[in-house]
Design a protein that fits this description.
Blueprint: H1 3-14, E1 20-21, H2 23-38, H3 44-63, E2 71-72, H4 73-83, H5 88-99, H6 108-118, H7 120-124, H8 128-131, H9 137-141, H10 150-157, H11 168-178, E3 182-183, E4 195-196, E5 199-202, E6 209-211, H12 212-216, E7 230-233, H13 240-250
Helix pairs in contact: 1-2, 3-4, 4-5, 5-6, 5-10
Organism: Sinocyclocheilus rhinocerous
Pfam families: EF-hand_3, ZZ
Protein name: Dystrobrevin, beta b
Length: about 250
């Protein structure tokens, strides 16, 4: 069961809202509710990893809890929904369910509270100047609209580009989706025989490709320049012409 559904089942059934909970209560919630469900689906090794990472996330939240050492359940929901595995569309649907009223209309005050909580994540890794919370964050997301329904909410947050304060959110999901993607091709800079993650191919230099590590560091060699346009690839597919020629040669058709 995905963690998004666990959040619905566990906290939805218990009726938690914006109540403030202390450290002991948080520990109890995690131990006897979320992990009770997770433990039935995961191996011990993976379960321990999930527990360790969630504890780290809680500590990150507490660092920004304004000194009182307590968190709201809403903050926990926002953080877990943002950081857990799953499709970004499912996450946004869940988030909207937490910030909308009984008529399915977004409550701006709740969305503001969501931004306050979730933007603590980039702030924790020193990206506050670019993605930190400001009192204008809500209106930068929805500058004109007065009545926000689910489809409008999804359209805005799934747009390309998304609102400035949430640019990192879809990127984080893209990184998670490609971290185990294998490319059986050599990096033109570091000479690694294969790549994992994103692959970047130059649009000017024939056959020049970089692994994500070299590309992000701005490495270049030979005639290639950082000013050249690069195309990002998140999967490996052989050139169709190459596949056609190889197939026909192998089968003796040419």
């Amino acid at each position: 069961m995905p963690l998004i559904k666990l959040l619905y089942v566990v906290w939805g059934n218990k009726g938690f809202g914006f109540q403030v909970v202390g450290l002991v209560t948080i520990s109890t919630l995690c131990t006897y509710s979320v992990y009770t469900y997770i433990s039935k689906r995961l191996s011990i090794r993976v379960r321990n990893l999930v527990i360790a990472m969630t504890r780290l996330l809680i500590m990150c939240c507490l660092c920004f809890s304004e000194g009182h050492g307590k968190l709201t359940v809403f903050a926990m929901k926002a953080m877990l929904a943002t950081m857990c595995g799953g499709k970004i569309l499912d996450k946004l649907r869940y988030i909207f369910s937490q910030i909308s009223d009984s008529n399915g209309v977004m409550v701006f005050a709740k969305f503001d509270q969501f931004l306050r909580e979730v933007l603590k994540l980039p702030t924790a890794v020193f990206e506050g100047p670019s993605f930190g919370y400001t009192e204008h964050s809500v209106r930068t997301c929805f500058p004109q609209q007065k009545k926000i329904l689910l489809n409008t909410f999804l359209d805005v947050l799934m747009a390309d580009p998304p609102p400035q304060c949430l640019v990192w959110l879809p990127l984080m999901h893209r990184l998670a989706n490609v971290e185990n993607v294998f490319h059986p091709v050599e990096c033109s800079y570091c000479q690694s025989e294969s790549m994992m993650g994103f692959r970047y191919r130059c649009q000017q230099c024939h056959g020049y490709q970089l692994c994500q590590s070299c590309f992000w560091r701005g490495h270049a060699s030979g005639p290639h320049s950082n000013q050249h346009q690069m195309k990002e690839h998140s999967s490996w597919e052989k050139n169709k012409v190459y596949q056609y020629v190889t197939f026909n040669v192998f089968n003796g058709f040419v």
